């Protein structure tokens, strides 16, 4: 593999890792607050659709983004209603939300566009443009680092950079602000938060709301950045991979970046090569597909470093006995 | 908190949930500019008023009975097996191997062999998540989700690289030998004069599904294993007091659950496609969740809910054929049913309990 | 000179949980700058009362005055504002947070943590010096000893500038040395003018530290006295109550050989605490051995170990043959097969499957017996018929075997369990809290059944926190304190007040001072913890 190919694979890794990363950070906020969310997939999907649909209709990728954020957050609050207010089963609610999104997107797409559950292809201002960072072309001739800067670091759409920035932001919010302290506390020991006179419900809704916004970003990027329009089921399990990455990262922001880049790399490699020949042993592409899930099971099994989820995850908070 | 009488909990809550789901779906249909009444009429006509419609309805229902039973057996042990999809995929693989590589003299024997293989393969796929849950506390919901994807990748690999006949384009196995052909309803009931169930995929596996309902009913309510599964599901501390091993019971319940999901492969691979294709499960593993919730984890309820969803699937296909409403309407209905019966059930139950409390008070 | 306004005044507080009335019309005055003890047995309603004061539960009725002002305390926020701090029995700490983070949680200054943490660090330092409350501010709480975790709770309250501090059973989880330190802290706090409410069931603590003491019994406040004007004996009586002794007609026991020989039984729970510390006794056929003690001193673990569902070391011999105490062959079903019946302390979470019908429950734990099987299936019809008979013989009302266990009253639930365990004719019957939450009529019936079983030559181990019950039924009485059996007395020779003191960890036993022995063991444990931690 030459250097140019390597850069191409890594470039594609960045793009593929971005929706995973945003969704993974979304899940991180929710689960750190004690609300388990297996509905990341559905929220991404609905955001992908509405971003693409509104962008197609208005020609504005920004209005598309707004639509994506709103739709995803609304779905997130349905989850909040079920898990926080009505103390329902968070897992089942997540499953329902995934189906709701899978069905509604196609239904509405068909009604609006009549193209069998897809939106028209986005062109021009309906899509995120790739941003060329300053001096990218000037520096290109510099050996090794020049192409690295010009091809890998520069030339992504805005949301890729937003995703990367969200990692330190998430870390900062969680570990350096009052809100983050309370958020983490409510996922570990809601009774401590309650006796300290802080509303458990309010915190959890806030977390679920942030989760919705981040999923909205992830979905928007999918339909208006990574691809040019919405197609049926376009998330293709990314919400679950993000969930896997979250467990893999043990609910920590920087590790989430690492996990998402790893899983993004696996996708990039699988996309580029059908089978990989490693000195006589051929690794079929399906191994790349399955690897994120296999790794997550291994982590969950606790054979390689135990992944301990937030202690109060999945449990509705009930004050009276 | 106010309590509901058991009959209301078993009948009224799912019924109201269903009505809520139906009402919301009607709004969705209105929203996309179609007439819900007309849509419903089309669905009934396409799924129930013609024998071929029934042939499809019951074909889908067969799948949903298996996956619904699978989810409900796990629910009885308070385990959420979301891995029906993967287990059914593996079940189909078992069916294909048995049908393709073993010589069968007659379909009855082939069906028996395929059923055993399907159940074993499905159970095997459920074993690792079960073991990890029981022994190491790994969350079974997450592990079974992961195993769904791993199953899909495995099947993809096998179909593309191993089982696909040379020269064939699409990733699927060879057609199964003729001796493994299962009688369809058409084979069984159509006559020259009365061509019933023409072209419909409903087949003898439906009766296997009914048998499975009876067997699971007996297992859960008539055997000591079922007694222990339910006891563990209700109270782990009491189970320990009584000497019921949580580890063993969790693993066994999940093996049965996985086996049931696997059995679906008999219907799809052997009964319908007569070969193994990619994504033969078509989400039936997930519909099992809705069916189990709706059917209150009782085989009779599961059976009825499965028929209902079979009707919705077939009716939905008819809608897609004649109107501008895509099949995904059914996915929305399914999502709403899961939401209202599984997650927002308190939103249904609490007001209902208040109504009952108000009705009771004047009587006192 | 007029008295200052009371720091706290409660008037007519009542609170029910479903049918259980936890507090009945309670009134209380606590003067500022004093330590006010509230004493009573488990379940007397002390914790509920304090939770109401802290806004954790809402009272059904009654008024609260704080420092002369009438206050509504709908939530913890309001309690904190009123200057009330609470140290719960089960700490409300975030285990993977540092001490500092726990202290500032909910009392941060501004949106960023850094200034809050810096401020808290300074405040903690001065509090540590002022009140002997030192604890490493950067340590994660989960790595702290229990005593230090408690200090974090006190620091939390002081950081919020509480001047009224409620401590709920603060020494229940402490070693004597830690408890002594806690009392020094409380002394210092009182010296600074803080008001302290100390909830406990230990007389020694009340006598040692409080100025005033109120006694609660069965949800009611029965007395409030100056500590200096009372004696432990008087308090013990007030606490346990001079109830009409339950009389059970019984002939003198005819004990035979030892049915169950227990030697040096030790059990360590999942959090690594040794709950049984070398328990040894013989249980004879034809006798009732009563185990008295305040809940949480190892009685539950003793029953679980003997019942086969908690691992232990040591030895247990049943009629001469040793029973496995861990691994294969050590489970509830194996114990039942060996002839040990068990009526567990908590029928709702152990003894019964609440949604199961009475007939299903009537074989719970015996459901694998060959007599109930026919081939693959259980003989449900036969079980149901048998259950109907049991229910009739044990006077279960309503005698409807199809009714779910949760729909029976407490007494009738208990009769279902008793019928199941007694009618199998076990050689040894373990009974925990046989009449907890049971109405008077059923109590008498249950007691008769126990005596009848004894007279049939069976060995009975009775665990109860009700001293009356222990006296009414037992032929010999042992008291458990802190995982040890404090010696066994003949019931006829035992004195209720003396046992009450033994239960509270006060008193001497056969020339040996159990407190001293326990304390030595505590120090040993502390030393071990220190070297491990």
- Which structural class do you get from the secondary structure elements of chain A? mainly alpha
Number of helices of chain A: 13
Question: Into how many domains do the coordinates of chain C divide?
Answer: 2
**Overall residue-averaged pLDDT value of chain A:** 91
Beginning-to-end CA distance, first to last residue of chain A: 63 Å
- The side-by-side strand order for the widest beta sheet of chain C comes to 6-7-8-3-9-10
Give the CA-CA distance, first to last residue of chain C: 54 Å
Strand runs of chain C, count: 22
Shape of chain A: globular
Helix percentage range of chain A? 55-70%
Molecular structure report:
The complex is a heterotrimer of chains A (321), B (364) and C (533). By secondary structure, chain A is mainly alpha-helical. Chain A is built from 13 helices and 4 strands. In chain A, strands 1-2 form a two-stranded antiparallel ribbon. A two-stranded antiparallel ribbon of chain A has the order 3-4. In chain A, helix 1 packs across helix 7. Chain A is globular, with a radius of gyration of 20 Å. The N and C termini of chain A lie far apart (63 Å). The mean pLDDT of chain A is 91. Chain B has a domain at 57-306: ABC transporter involved in vitamin B12 uptake, BtuC (Orthogonal Bundle), CATH 1.10.3470. The longest helix of chain B has 30 residues, at 107-136. The radius of gyration of chain B is 21 Å and the shape is globular. In chain B, 58% of the residues are buried. The mean pLDDT of chain B is 91. The longest helix of chain C has 19 residues, at 113-131. The N and C termini of chain C lie far apart (54 Å). Chain C is elongated and about 70 Å long. Chain C has 533 residues and is of the alpha/beta class. Chain C has 2 domains: 8-240, P-loop containing nucleotide triphosphate hydrolases (Rossmann fold), CATH 3.40.50.300; 258-351 and 424-532, P-loop containing nucleotide triphosphate hydrolases (Rossmann fold).
């Amino acid at each position: 593999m030459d250097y140019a190919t390597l850069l191409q694979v890594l470039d594609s890794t960045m793009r593929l890792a971005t929706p995973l990363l945003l969704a993974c950070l979304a899940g991180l906020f929710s689960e750190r607050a004690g609300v388990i969310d297996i509905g990341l997939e559905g929220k991404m999907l609905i955001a992908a659709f509405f971003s693409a649909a509104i962008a197609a209709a208005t020609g504005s990728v920004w209005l598309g983004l707004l639509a994506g954020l709103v739709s995803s957050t609304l779905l997130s609050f349905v989850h909040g209603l079920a898990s926080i207010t009505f103390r329902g089963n968070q897992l089942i609610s997540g499953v329902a939300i995934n189906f709701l999104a899978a069905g509604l997107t196609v239904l509405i797409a068909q009604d609006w566009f009549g193209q069998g559950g897809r939106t028209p292809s986005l062109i021009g201002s309906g899509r995120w443009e790739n941003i060329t960072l300053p001096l990218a072309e000037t520096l290109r001739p510099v050996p090794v680092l020049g192409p690295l800067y010009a091809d890998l670091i520069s030339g992504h759409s805005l949301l890729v950079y937003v995703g990367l920035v969200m990692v330190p932001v998430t870390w900062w919010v969680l570990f350096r602000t009052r809100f983050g302290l309370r958020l983490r506390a409510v996922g570990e020991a809601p009774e401590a938060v309650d006796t300290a006179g802080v509303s458990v419900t309010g915190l959890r809704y806030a977390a679920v709301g942030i989760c919705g916004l981040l999923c909205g970003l992830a979905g928007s990027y999918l339909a208006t950045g990574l691809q040019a329009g919405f197609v049926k089921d376009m998330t293709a399990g990314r919400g679950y991979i993000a969930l896997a990455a979250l467990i893999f990262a043990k609910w920590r922001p920087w590790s989430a970046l690492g996990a998402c880049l790893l899983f993004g790399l696996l996708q990039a490699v699988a996309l580029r090569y059908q089978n990989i020949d490693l000195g006589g042993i051929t690794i079929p592409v399906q191994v790349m597909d399955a690897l994120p899930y296999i790794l997550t099971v291994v982590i969950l099994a606790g054979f390689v470093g135990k992944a301990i989820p937030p202690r109060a995850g999945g449990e509705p908070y009930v004050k009276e006995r | 908190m106010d309590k509901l009488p058991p009959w209301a909990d078993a009948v009224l809550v799912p019924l109201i949930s269903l009505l809520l789901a139906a009402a919301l779906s009607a709004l969705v249909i209105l929203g996309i500019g179609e007439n819900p009444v007309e849509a419903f009429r089309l669905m009934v006509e396409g799924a129930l008023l013609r024998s071929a419609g029934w042939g499809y309805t019951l074909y889908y229902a067969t799948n949903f009975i298996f996956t619904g039973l699978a989810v409900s057996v796990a629910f009885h042990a308070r385990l959420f097996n979301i891995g029906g999809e993967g287990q059914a995929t593996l079940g189909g693989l078992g069916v294909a191997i048995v049908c393709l590589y073993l010589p069968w003299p007659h379909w009855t024997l082939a069906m028996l062999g395929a059923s055993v293989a399907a159940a074993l393969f499905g159970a095997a796929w459920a074993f690792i998540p079960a073991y990890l849950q029981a022994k190491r506390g790994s969350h079974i919901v997450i592990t079974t989700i992961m195993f769904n994807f791993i199953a899909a990748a495995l099947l993809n690999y096998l179909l593309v690289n191993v089982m696909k006949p040379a020269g064939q384009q699409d990733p699927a196995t060879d057609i199964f030998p003729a001796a493994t052909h299962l009688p369809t309803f058409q084979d069984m009931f159509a006559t020259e004069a009365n061509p019933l169930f023409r072209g419909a995929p409903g087949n003898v596996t439906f009766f296997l599904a009914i048998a499975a309902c009876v067997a699971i009913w007996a297992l859960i309510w008539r055997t000591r294993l079922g007694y222990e599964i339910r006891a563990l599901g209700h109270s782990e501390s009491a189970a320990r007091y009584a000497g019921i091993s949580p580890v063993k019971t969790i693993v066994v319940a999940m093996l049965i659950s996985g086996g049931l999901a696997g059995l679906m492969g008999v219907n799809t691979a052997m009964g319908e496609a007569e070969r193994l294709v990619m994504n033969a499960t078509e989400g039936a593993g997930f519909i099992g969740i809705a069916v189990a919730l709706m059917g209150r984890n009782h085989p009779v309820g599961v059976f009825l809910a499965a028929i209902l969803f079979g009707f919705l699937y077939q009716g939905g296909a008819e809608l897609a054929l004649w109107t501008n409403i895509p099949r995904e309407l059914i996915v929305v209905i399914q999502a709403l049913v899961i939401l209202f019966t599984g997650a927002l059930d308190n939103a249904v139950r609490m007001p209902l309990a208040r109504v009952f409390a108000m009705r009771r008070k004047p009587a006192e | 000179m007029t008295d200052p306004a009371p720091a706290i005044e409660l008037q007519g507080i009542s609170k029910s949980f479903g049918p259980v009335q936890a507090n009945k019309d309670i009134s209380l005055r606590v003067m500022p700058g004093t330590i006010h003890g509230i004493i009573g047995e488990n379940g007397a309603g002390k914790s509920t009362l304090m939770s109401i004061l802290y806004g954790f539960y809402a009272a059904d009725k009654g008024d609260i005055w704080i420092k002369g002002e009438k206050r509504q305390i709908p939530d913890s926020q309001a309690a904190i504002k009123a200057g009330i701090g609470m140290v719960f029995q089960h700490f409300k700490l975030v285990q993977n947070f540092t001490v500092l983070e726990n202290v500032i949680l909910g009392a941060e200054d501004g949106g960023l943590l850094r200034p809050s943490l810096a401020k808290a660090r300074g405040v903690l330092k001065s509090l540590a010096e002022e009140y002997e409350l030192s604890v490493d501010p950067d340590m994660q709480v989960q790595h702290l000893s229990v005593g230090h975790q408690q200090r974090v709770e006190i620091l939390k309250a002081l950081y919020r500038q509480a001047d009224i501090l409620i401590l709920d059973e603060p020494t229940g989880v402490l070693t004597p040395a830690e408890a002594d330190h806690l009392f020094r802290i409380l002394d210092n706090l009182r010296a600074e003018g803080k008001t302290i409410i100390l909830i406990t069931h230990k007389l020694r603590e009340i006598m040692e530290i409080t100025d005033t003491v109120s006694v609660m019994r069965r949800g009611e406040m029965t007395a409030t006295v100056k500590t200096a004007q009372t004696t432990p004996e008087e308090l013990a009586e007030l606490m346990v109550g001079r109830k009409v002794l339950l009389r059970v007609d019984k002939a003198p026991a005819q004990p035979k050989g030892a049915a169950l020989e227990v030697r040096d039984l030790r059990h360590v729970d999942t959090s690594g605490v040794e709950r049984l510390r070398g328990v040894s006794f013989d249980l004879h056929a034809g006798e009732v051995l009563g185990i008295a003690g305040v809940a949480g001193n190892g009685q539950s673990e003793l029953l679980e170990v003997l019942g086969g569902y908690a691992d232990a070391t040591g030895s247990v011999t049943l009629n001469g043959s040793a029973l496995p105490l861990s691994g294969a062959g050590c489970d509830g079903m194996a114990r039942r097969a060996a002839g040990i019946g068990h009526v567990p302390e908590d029928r709702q979470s152990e003894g019964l499957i609440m949604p199961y019908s009475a007939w299903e429950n009537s074989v719970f734990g015996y459901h694998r017996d060959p007599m109930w099987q026919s081939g693959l299936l259980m003989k449900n019809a036969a079980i149901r018929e048998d259950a109907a008979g049991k229910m009739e013989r044990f006077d279960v009302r309503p005698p409807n075997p199809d009714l779910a266990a949760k729909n029976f009253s407490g007494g009738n639930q208990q009769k279902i369990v008793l019928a199941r365990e007694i009618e199998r004719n076990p050689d040894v019957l373990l009974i925990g809290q046989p009449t907890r939450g049971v109405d008077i009529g059923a109590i008498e019936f249950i007691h008769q059944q126990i005596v009848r079983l004894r007279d049939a030559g069976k060995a009975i181990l009775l665990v109860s926190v009700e001293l009356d019950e222990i006296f009414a039924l037992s032929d010999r009485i042992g008291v458990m304190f802190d995982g040890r059996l404090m010696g066994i007395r003949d019931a006829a020779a035992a004195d209720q007040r003396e046992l009450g003191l033994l239960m509270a960890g006060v008193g001497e036993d056969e020339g040996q001072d159990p407190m001293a022995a326990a304390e030595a063991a505590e120090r040993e444990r502390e030393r071990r913890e220190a070297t491990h931690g």
